[in-house]
Design goal:
This protein has about 140 residues and is mainly alpha-helical. The protein has helices at about 5-15, 20-25, 45-60, 65-75, 80-110, 120-130, 135-145; strands at about 35, 40. The protein has a two-stranded antiparallel ribbon with strand order 1-2. Helix 6 crosses helix 7 (about 135-145).
C-alpha cells in the first residue's frame, strides 16, 4: 500500500491550510479521503490535485470554476478548453476595464483643478456614468470634445 498522508501532512506539502482542504473536500474539489481511526488519509496524488487547484486559483478561476474544470476533464478531452476560453474572455474584459480605470486616474492626477470634483471633465464623466455609460464610453465622450 502506498504512503497515505494525513490532512496535516497534505497541508504541509502544499502550503494550504487544513481548514481550506476540508472546505475543498466539502465542495467536491478533493475526493473524500479514506479514514483510518477517523483520521483523513489522502493518497500521494492529492498533492498534485491541490497543486492544480492552486494553479487555477492563481490565474483567476473561482472555486466553482475549478470544480467545473475537474469535472470537465473526466467527461471530454476538450471540456477544459471551453472553460479556459471563457476565463480568457473574462480576463480580457477585466484588463480593458483596468486600463480604462488607469487612464481615468492618470488624467485625474494630471488635472490642474485643486479639487477634482470641480473639474468639468470629471463632472462630465460622472454625468456620462449616471446616464448608463461604461467608464470607457464616459472617457471617450469627455475627451471627444
Amino acid at each position: 500500500m502506498s504512503e497515505q498522508l494525513t490532512i496535516g501532512e497534505l497541508a504541509s506539502r502544499t502550503g494550504v491550510a487544513t481548514s481550506a482542504l476540508r472546505y475543498w473536500e466539502e465542495l467536491g474539489l478533493l475526493p473524500a479521503p479514506a479514514r483510518i481511526s477517523g483520521q483523513r488519509r489522502y493518497p500521494p496524488s492529492a498533492v498534485g490535485l491541490v497543486g492544480v487547484i492552486l494553479a487555477l486559483r492563481n490565474v483567476g478561476f473561482t472555486l466553482r470554476e475549478v470544480k467545473a474544470f475537474i469535472a470537465s476533464r473526466s467527461l471530454t478531452d476538450d471540456g477544459w478548453r471551453r472553460l479556459y476560453q471563457r476565463k480568457l474572455t473574462e480576463l480580457d474584459q477585466r484588463i480593458a476595464q483596468a486600463l480604462a480605470a488607469r487612464t481615468a486616474i492618470a488624467h485625474g492626477l494630471a488635472c490642474p483643478h485643486k479639487d477634482i470634483v470641480e473639474c468639468p471633465n470629471f463632472t462630465s464623466g460622472v454625468e456620462a456614468l449616471l446616464a448608463g455609460c461604461s467608464l470607457e464610453e464616459a472617457h471617450s465622450q469627455v475627451h471627444s470634445h
